[in-house]
Amino acid sequence: MEDKESLKRDRAWIEINLNNLENNINEIKKVISDTCDIMAIVKANAYGHGMINISKKLNSIGIRNFAVATLEEGITLRENNIDGNILILGYTDFSDLEYAIKYDLIQTIVDYEYASKINKLNLNNKLKAHIKINTGMNRIGESYKNVDNIAKIYEMKNIEVLGIYSHLCVADSIENDDVEFTNNQDNNFFECVNSIKNLGYYVGKIHLQASYCIFNYPNLKCDYVRPGIIMYGLYSDKFSKTKIQPNIKPVLSLKARISSVKQINAGDSVGYGRTYIADENRKIASVSIGYADGYPRSLSGKHTKVLINNEYAEIVGRICMDQLMIDVTNISNVKQGDIVTLIGEEKEISAEEISYKADTITNELLCRLGNRLPRIEIN
Length: 379
Ligand SMILES: *Cc1c(COP(=O)(O)O)cnc(C)c1O
Fold this sequence. Notes:
This protein is α/β, with parallel strands linked by helices. It has 12 helices and 19 strands. 28% of the residues lie in helices and 25% in strands.
């Protein structure tokens, strides 16, 4: 038990390349203005990368603004001594807003009604907040049209408004209709913000752009950008293109060990449901990772590739909860204990390709990677 690090690599694990994270931050900095800061999105365990280590690295390279989805994520960052502003992007129930104050977190005001109710609470201190503006996403946010109500939030005794923001719903697309929709959202947001300024309020920090928007609409004048998926070195899907194409590098790779290698004969099957039947004698290796680790079961039966000894092998049969099987007939020297890469930098096993095969996007694939996988920094 002396070398504890080795324990983490016994079965299946995630490797985190922090140099690539730094590279991606620098790529984002190249396109934003000097007066704009990065608000790093580290919700959902930093898209599965490990929220604490990612945030510590970001702190160490000068990032001072973070966003999370939930109160509890914000508290976790504070308990691990993350410095700077932490914005909660989602709803927090009234009964727990005291914790947002106690841990110096910034709460999103999801609409005017929420603000009014907060203003009736008995709080020990003012709640720091950013106001969310709905410009067409229709998820959360007070409508950009209700300038008077938004202005009233700036007056509320219980709320210290430090910022105002909106979220775009088709900024990833460069199709004409989508660009027009996005431009409308942008205009409505900035008009709303300017109206409030004209009423004499200091509106606070202004922000709008998530990953794709940073590279499709780099000229929007904001105080923060909010990169998530691109900071982790990925597009959401493999067909994506942005107007400016950053030189991003994936931060995460997913690895597991071979547990057993065997010969099977023509006609033998592999795995539950006997969905794979060998057409000739084959060599099958079992890999110690499964859908409980977040590797999607929906990748079964789709010729999904993994990498072993620098060669590609295909998954055969159904992916199990903790294990899966691969065909290594044409790969020499595969043995127990060998390392298999399931998600990595190579195109065939990129998170973009794997999520495409699993009928989802990289964001979902990554944030579902299981808690039992150790996250290991490789530099
Ligand atoms: C998750 C989220 C982001 C980050 O989105 P990406 O597309 O991953 O960059 C930014 N802003 C808000 C409000 C979010 O919820």
